[in-house]
Each structure stands twice: as structure tokens, then as C-alpha cells.
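Project standup — Tuesday

K.O.: blocked on the structure for the chain from last sprint. Re-posting the sequence here as requested.
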Amino acid sequence: MTPFYCLAAIVMLSTDPNMIYVDDRVKFDEGDPRDPQNFSYARKWAITLTCSASASSYSISYESMMHDLNCTQLQATVGLSLYVLGFGIVPLISSSFSEECGRRPLYIVSSVLFMLAEVMNALAPNIQVVIVSRILQGVFGSTGASLVGGSIADIWQPHERGLPMSLFAFSSIFSFGLGSVFGGLIATSPHLGWRWVQWVHVMVSGAYVLDVILVMNETRSSIVLAHIAKDTRKTTGDPRYRSGAEIDRPSIKSLMKTSCTRPLHLLLTEPIVQSFSIWCGFTWGVVYCLLESITTEFQSVYNFSVSETGFVFLSVIGFMANMYQDTLYKKNFSIKGQEARLYMACVAAIVLPVSMFIYAWTASPTIPWIVPLIALTAFMSGVFVIFQVSFLYLADCYGPYTSSAQAGQSLSRNFMALIFPLFTQQMFAGMTYKWGLTLWALISVAMAPIPWVIFFFGSKIRLHSKVSRKILEAEQQQLDGEKTIVSSPTEERSIQV
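H.V.: unblocked you, prediction finished:
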């Protein structure tokens, strides 16, 4: 049986003392179970489900919170908005940092600190402390969420990612419904109220911390190889054992610079990232607007209670649409390449404005409540498809820098989620729900061509992308087993972004 590693850094000095020719390095043998791509399916699914766990019920407890803390609805809304501020900014650092230092440490630290921020929220004596705790929850909660796409790309082959990413998208969207159901039931109880909503969050967060510690393995292959090389050096006493990540490891200063700039670089220079960021950002902002409108509208028009309104958020059927999309991808990948991910996204681009028009114009006492609910179901299903496609397509296009590309997209998406709720109530008060939602529907019509353009011209766009070309070249070199020349031990030899 061949050993699981081979001697690294067999060095031949050239006439230039700064040139190092690396013939081989510590690497995985074919089928090595320590390679994240070779994890058992049981372990892969355990990691995937751990990554995907989430829930949300903050907005459903507004009324109880305002009464208890004597605050205005605007102040309570600020708590909702500032949560996503952390979600948008922190991944700019944490995503790239995880690509260089590993996923698991960030998952553990962020989950523990998130739980402590939840405790702070539950014990808050005033709305100011609530707002601060929500900012901290966004900061620490964003780390795990921003790593999910990279973690799934680490352990699943491209043709296997459909279902895992569907589960992640499902948990992210469904959490609005699940959290709202339980939050509504708890918040309306005369003996419980909004603080118990937060204490339930603390309990769930504590269970998640244990889950992360026990289940989450390191999924970044370069980090796993670095650990193997370190153990081998310690066992054999031979300093020549090195992984590629160790040979090319950048300085801390360079690492921090890359972590902060790579996602922004991709967001500002890559048309694919830009397009999905604008589209997903607007759609996510509208979702947060609906968080403001659905509860009020269904209560006022159909006399739903708060807990019943929570059940409205459960209207998501996009999971099945994404299963069909996965079938289309496998069937048409040989023809369309990465753009085979976009069939259902093109459908969603049409469904979104249509469903928004229907919801805007049918919420009336003279029209049964099931009609706007069907429109909401169609809308949330379209959001579900977009949310998943944005992760999968970026993972396919940007390979080892998936987390950075998704962090750039996350910045745009969560910035919209931050801004929209701050003016939603004023907009609906001035324009009414009907015309306010009609405005969003018209903007959605203007954005509908985005996935269609990428579907037909995405491959040509990527051919003109410097980053995409270098990723393809690096992958081809890895497949061909070509000799790699490293200009210095600390220079990043992979893909400069």
C-alpha cells in the first residue's frame, strides 16, 4: 500500500539563489480518507447539516419588545437592520482568512461568541443594549454563514453540490418561517414575551456550539495537508516535509491585506460577481421589506394573530425547484458548462416580479387570504432559487476562492438588507402597501434580464476574466501534474487576486 504522503520540497538550486524548483510536496494519495473530498458521505452530510443550521425570529417579537423596553418601532427596526451590517462587512475578512488559516477554528470561535451575544440580548435592560448585541450577533453569525459555500465546495464535487446547497438555501430562507412561528407563539404568551424568544435562541446556539465542536472537521485541503506535514516533521525529525501552503505561506501582513481586499476586488472587477450581487442584493432587500409588511398587512386585512402571521413565513417550496435544477445541471453540463446552473434562475427572474404584482394587488378583504399567500409562496420560492444559484454558480466559477467571491456578493446583499427596513415603514405609509410593492415589482422587472444574459453569454464573459482564466490554468496544471516553480518561499504562487 502506498504511503499517504510523499517527500516534499526536493530542491535543486539554480544559478539564481532565489529560485526554488519544487518537484513534489506532501500531498494526498488517491483515495486518502483524510482528503476532504474523500470524506465518507455520513461525515460530509454531518458537516453540511451543521453548516446549514440557522433560525431567525427577531422581527416577530417587535410588539412585546417595544412594550417591555419602552422603545419605538424605528429603534426596534434598527436592531434588525444592524444585524445584517455585520453579515455584510465581516466576511470580507473572515472568508479569505479561512482560505489561508482553515475553516474549523473560525466556526468554533464565532459560534461561541454568537451564543454570548444572544445572552447579552436576552438580558438587555434597554433598547441600546439590544442594538449593540444585535450588531455583535451579526458580526459573529456572519463568520459561519460566509464559510458555508466554501465548506460545501471543499467536500463535494461540483456535480454533487446541488442538494447540499439546496439544504443550505432552504435553512436560510426557512429560518424566517421557523423562527417566526415559534417566536410568534412565545412572544404572544402573557407569561413569556420577547426575552424568552431570545433565551430559546441561546439554548439553540449552545446546542450548535457543541455540534460544531463534535462534528465539524477541517475541510480546507491545504490546511489539512499542512497539519499532516507538521505531524510528519515531528515524527521523523526531517524538516524537508512541507505542504504547498507552508512553502508559499504569505506573511501575516500580506495575509490580512489579501483577506480584506480579495472579496472587494472580485466585487468591483468581476462582472459575474457584480451581476449576481446587484440582483441578489435587491431581492434580499425586498425580503426584509416583506418582513415589515407581511405581519402588518395580514393582521390588518385578514385579522391574523401574531402567531398565525408567523406561519405565513413558512411559504417556501423552492426546494423542489432546486432539485429539478440539479437534474437539469447534470443533464446539460456537457453543453452549457457552469451556465447549466442557471435554468431555474431564469425562471425565477420572471416569477419574482409577477408574484410581487399579484401580492401587491390582491391583499384585500374582498379577496381570500389564500391568493396573496400563493403569491408569497411563489415569491419566496424564487428567492430560494436565487439564493442557492448565487452560491453554486460562484462556487463553480471561482473554485478555491469561492468564499471570497461569495463574501463580495454577501456585502451587497446584506447592505441592501440593512438599508431597506430603515425606510420601509415610511414608504408604505406614504405610498400604501399596494403601490410600494408595485414599485419593487417594477424594479424587479428591470433586473430580470440579468440571469438570462449570463446564461447565454456567461462563458464569453468568463473568458475575458483574468481571475477565471488563472483558476482554469491552475486547475489544468494540477491535472497535468506539471512542475511548479516558486519564486520565493513566501510568495503566493497560486492565483494572485
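K.O.: great, moving the ticket to review. Residues 402-447 form the longest helix (46 residues). The chain is about 75% helix and 0% strand.
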